[in-house]
């Protein structure tokens, strides 16, 4: 999925910007909801939390896209997850 997004032109900076925008929108939605709705602070809190929960996902996707970018900078093809799991080497215990 990340490789496909990268091929479509999506970059890590786009995702980092979306995450920061989500944080800003969370604050703005709380202020607007608290000021202009008669539902009270509970509803404002729910709106802010709903929008604010997007930020970690955008940050995680930004990190994954950055890893894809770094792999392409090195001229390497990013291996599939199944191939990576077979390449994992477990550390040996000393004296065993």
Automatic annotation (TrEMBL):
Residues 70-96 are annotated as: Disordered. Keywords: Membrane, Transmembrane, Transmembrane helix. The keyword Transmembrane applies. The chain crosses the membrane at residues 12-32, 47-65. This is Uncharacterized protein. It comes from Microbispora catharanthi.
